[in-house]
Amino acid sequence: MESEKSKILVFGGRGYLGKYMVKASVSMGHPTYVYVRPVDPSKLQLHHEFESMGVTIFQGELDEEEKMVAAVKQVDVVISTLAVPQHLEQFKIIHAIKQAPNIKRFVPSEFGNEVDRVSGLPPFQALMENKKRIRRATESAGIPFTYVSANSFAAYFVDFLLHPHQTLQHVSIYGNGDAKAVLNFEEDVAAYTIKASVDPRTCNRVIIYRPPGNIVSQLDLISSWEKKTGTTLQRTHISEQDIIKLSESLPFPENIPVAILHNIFIKGDQMSFELNANDLEASELYPEYKYTSVDKLLDICLVNPPKPKLAAFA
């Protein structure tokens, strides 16, 4: 169930998730726009790729209000994929949208835990509080929204946990390894988000990405990888107490990743609440979309593993 094609503007379109979002929007036939900083040499190839796809590119900074408002006034939907260090910069996007009554939907940059239903160690909780601030500002402004809880990026965490681009005999396990997490392939996160951004059923709602084939524990993941590769990995458990101590002793922003690991893979927050009849779950809303299961992603990793990606937290 989708409405007619909408003009979609992506902020952060040259970033890790943003490039998938732009490509998904184009592939679904939506006139697609990006608002990006003036191009630097390292981004030229992607810039030209977007141009070849027919993407309209607005170049400007987030503090250039007139440019932002002009861009927003040309579209129907605004999707932000800004990275963690820029989350509070979304107040500027909200301010621009308030001056553009044509906007039918705003999707702020979240794509992680359902922040209104879980909690974490202080470094991660601070990050989630920033996302809550953007939610409440969006609601106060009366902007139609969709909040996306995409849980975890599968390619990122498969690389982090298994290092499939290397031939290793050792793997680290956080906690006892039993906690269930939800690992969604980045391309699927983008596809579901584009679908949700133009779906009337998701207006002013939270949509949670919890496909059954993507619910796994660390032990599940390791066992599957061992079977596929015919290897037996040596396992070292890092205790919950050690992770908590690291979150308290490491300086900012190094303390954030360990707090995230605790929340996802030790506390198991992504599966800590049951979905009820009022919740919207992506794979149920869009059963026609064939998502990439974790098992299928591991098959891909055997041939073409994802490139290592470093997350930015400051």
In words, what does this structure look like?
The protein is an alpha/beta fold and 314 residues long. It is 40% helix and 16% strand. It is built from twelve helices and 13 strands. The strands form four sheets. The chain has a five-stranded parallel beta sheet with strand order 3-2-1-4-5, with helices on both faces. It has a three-stranded parallel beta sheet with strand order 6-10-13. Strands 7-9-11 form a three-stranded mixed beta sheet. Helix 9 (240-249) packs antiparallel against helix 10. The longest helix has 19 residues, at 122-140. The protein is globular and about 55 Å long. It starts with 7 loop residues before the first strand and ends in an 11-residue tail after the last helix. The mean pLDDT is 95.
